[in-house]
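Why do we care about 3D structure at all? Because function follows from shape, and shape follows, mostly, from sequence. That is the central idea of this module. The next example makes it concrete: a single protein chain, its amino acid sequence, and then its structure expressed as tokens.
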Amino acid sequence: MFKVFAAALAGLALSATATASAQEVVEGQDYTLLENPVATVADDDHIEVTEVFWFGCPHCYALQDTVEQWYPTLDDDVEIVKMPATMGGNWNTHATAFYAAESLGIEGELHRDFFDAIHQDGQTLTDEDDIAAFFANYGVSEDEAKKALNAFPVRSETNRAHSRMREMRLMGVPALVVDGRYVITPSTAGGLENMPVVAEALIEQVRSERAE
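And the structure:
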């Protein structure tokens, strides 16, 4: 499956409709360069790729198949950081749910299911009781879930994500941010499918810079 996906990425890079190749990307066309880099959370010897998303965003949902196949193909020096977007209302509720699930050790297991519940099953998952009931499917009690949703560390993580999002100058999602400097959106990449193509080129660029 991964070989097929890699071939597909190569095809995208060579396609006449692709905006970037694996060898060359253009600032202002394929990605945006932040004037003030955002502090990364990955280890210093790793290249951070931050996926910024909102569970309620259909475009973020559409991107999931692509990134779920892409991430396992990346080298060990690349670290993926998932960061929920915070733009008020349900965005913040879902961001809190993300960090609550992470604190309970169930986020990785429920991540795609949370997306599916919203976009396939028609659930909103914006009510604390509904979120707690959903979390209960993953081996935690509803009481534990509610405590996590209201825990100070979880609220702090949500606030930190909000600060990082503002530093990234993001006005929407999905986005991939490489090394806290390079921001890739569907519009700059020429489509959702091209976002990993541009990101991979920028990962190579960062790797080359660090080797100098």
